[in-house]
Design brief:
Layout: E1 16-20, H1 27-33, E2 38-44, H2 47-61, E3 65-72, H3 77-84, E4 93-98, H4 100-113, E5 117-121, E6 133-138, E7 141-146, E8 152-156, H5 157-161, H6 165-190, H7 197-203
Parallel strand pairs: 1-8, 2-3, 2-4, 4-5, 5-8
Antiparallel strand pairs: 6-7
Helix pairs in contact: 3-4, 6-7
């Protein structure tokens, strides 16, 4: 079966994308360039201690204030909502720095307030740092909750290289699983036994 070419599809991507060494030091500049000078920062536990000397001088130099900061220890949707709506009214941007919990917390908080979210992953164990969803605890169970695509992603490769090696292996596994999931989805959509036409075509590129 041949599929028509759709030209009316829209793919949302982060507006701000910075990847390279030393990028945490420049977060202040990136925010100031977008006139986002009042920031809420959510950290993974222990990350603030490791990155404070790299982040804060750049914020101060560019006139960016951290109007609220918190280490993220939970991802219960009710508690996130409560904290989100008690944040300072001056907040203009929400920054998540660290791993899954902090980024999911910050992303959903920004979504609720309709503020830009800047994702600063410290490892590449999965692609959640740039997805439009948050993995949260809802009614006692882990669920995927709709949020928004990040306004920005700042990946400091020096920081990523300092993360445990297991995080790299996890990221490779995450990527491979998406390829096999694509096979499964396309085969099901084609409703064919064995390799569908879609899978045959996909294999030409893999």
């Amino acid at each position: 079966m041949l599929y028509p070419l759709y030209t009316n599809k829209q793919i949302n991507i982060p507006y701000l994308l910075k990847i390279g060494d030393g990028k945490v030091k420049k977060i202040g500049k990136y925010l100031a360039d977008k006139n986002l000078t009042n920031a809420v920062i959510f950290w993974s536990e222990g990350i603030q201690r490791l990155l404070a000397d790299r982040l804060y001088p750049g914020l101060e130099e560019n006139g960016v204030k951290a109007v609220y900061e918190q280490d993220v220890r939970f991802i219960n949707i009710e508690e996130i909502t409560k904290i989100t709506f008690s944040l300072p009214k001056a907040a203009e941007v929400i920054v998540g720095i660290g791993g899954g919990k902090a980024l999911d917390f910050a992303k959903f908080s920004a979504h609720l307030l309709k503020l830009p979210f800047v994702s600063v992953p410290t490892s590449t164990s999965n692609d959640g740092f740039c997805s439009p969803n948050s993995s949260l605890i809802v009614d006692g169970k882990r669920k995927t909750v709709k949020a928004s695509i990040p306004f920005g992603v700042v990946a400091d490769l020096e920081v990523v290289r300092e993360s445990p090696q297991i995080c790299l292996y996890s990221g490779v596994g995450d990527m491979v699983s998406k390829i096999t999931a694509l096979y499964e989805r396309l085969s099901r959509d084609d409703d064919n036994a064995g390799d569908s036409n879609s899978i045959v075509n996909q294999k030409k590129y893999l």
